[in-house]
Amino acid sequence: MEYHVRDLQLAELGKRRIEWAERDMPVLRSIRERFAKEKPFVGVRISACLHVTTETANLMITLKEGGAEVFLTASNPLSTQDDVAAALVHYFGIPVFAIKGEDRDTYYSHLHAVIRKEPHIVIDDGADLISTLHREYPQLAQKILGGMEETTTGVIRLRAMAERGVLLFPVIAVNDAMTKHMFDNRYGTGQSTIDGILRATNRLIAGSTFVVAGYGWCGKGVAQRARGMGATVVVTEVDPIKALEAKMDGFLVMPMIEAAKIGDFFVTVTGNTSVIREEHFKVMKDGAIISNAGHFDVEIDIKALEKLSVGKREVRNFVEEYTLYDGRRIYLLAQGRLVNLASAEGHPASVMDMSFANQALCAEYILKHHSQLERKVYKVPREIDTQVAQLKLASMGVQIDQLTPEQLSYLSSWEIGT
């Protein structure tokens, strides 16, 4: 079996950690049990570009239980858990191409490795796999039944491709499922980003000024958790509606140039480029800590920071100290990459349970309905989103009401007035 991981001797530790995560993923477990009986993916090859974590491992195992031939590569050079990669290869026979800390050339060689398996279905996190397919393997891309995308950043890229008429197969935006972005982005990113900052720095958040750039679902989660830990939270935004929402939620709202002067911690979660730039570095306090929880390492202008610096050193794992020309020090976490996955373990399994349940069910949906789908980006079918929510509630022992026939009639009527 072809694979590329750091060390197979890490496999036993990875297996135990995969099992620990599985205990908190009851929705995916129920889908796996059905897949194991029905084998819907027999003869189907699935290539995935995802963060190689314990939760992702359980998705890969679920798809393989369903009969698929599965191949996995990392969607971020720093997010791979090497013990998990080893366990998937050694214990589950799943080819993995991922090493934590791999350079850019290795990262793309791993992408090419899973593409060359000629998949029928692709699963992406950030759209690097799909965009590489389109740029370098257009003939192969035309044969793919469909794909899924996990992140806001990736969905933006894929919708741009669809609007320009260059997308060669249908893609389901799993990121946009209510059971994904409302929970994964808000609760998952909120908790894991704080976790990553704490593991990297061991600094006290209470009493600090904590700046969150972007007030989408991820930004909301980070802002809520930082406030819960005692910080004064500042939100920066370019969208007036989101800025207004942040203000009404009780956060300070101001431009980044003003927030830069007072912030102790900074987190970017916008999906855009150069959110923290040269003019911001110039006014930051000595000791400011900057990090990113958006998908790509472009939100912090690292080249501008290096240009302003006279010295650079690693003072802790995932903490780089930049000394500026005037003696001020700015600390960059995880090289500007996803701090929650680079210096921590990513989202809790109970959150990823819903995200990856959506992935598994959408893969099955594509297999069944690909001939009716156009080359565009689709929302997750409502019935899948609802099914995931129902399974999650059942796993938590929560029951809800059902509409009565009278209520159903009332909601569908226009004749009943005051």
Brief summary of the model shown:
With 418 residues, this protein is an alpha/beta fold. The chain is 46% helix and 16% strand. The chain starts with 10 loop residues before the first helix and ends in a 7-residue tail after the last helix.
Report on this model:
NAD(+) binds at residues 151-153, 185, 214-221, 237, 272, 293-295, 340, 347. Residues 185-346 form the S-adenosyl-L-homocysteine hydrolase NAD binding domain. InterPro entries: Adenosylhomocyst_ase-like_sf, Adenosylhomocysteinase-like, Ado_hCys_hydrolase_NAD-bd, NAD(P)-bd_dom_sf, S-Ado-L-homoCys_hydrolase_CS. It comes from Thermocrinis albus (strain DSM 14484 / JCM 11386 / HI 11/12). The chain has helices at residues 11-22, 26-38, 54-65, 82-92, 104-115, 128-136, 138-141, 152-163, 178-201, 217-228, 240-248, 256-262, 278-281, 302-308, 339-342, 349-369, 382-395, 405-411; strands at residues 45-50, 69-74, 96-97, 121-124, 146-149, 171-173, 209-213, 232-236, 252-253, 265-268, 288-292, 309-316, 319-324, 329-333, 377-379. It is α/β, with parallel strands linked by helices and 418 residues long. The strands form 2 sheets. An 8-stranded mixed sheet has the order 9-8-7-10-11-14-13-12, sandwiched between helices. A 7-stranded parallel sheet has the order 3-2-1-4-5-6-15, with helices on both faces. Helix 1 packs across helix 3 (54-65), helix 2 packs parallel to helix 3 and helix 3 (54-65) packs parallel to helix 16. The longest helix is centred in the middle third of the chain and has 24 residues, at 178-201. The termini are far apart.
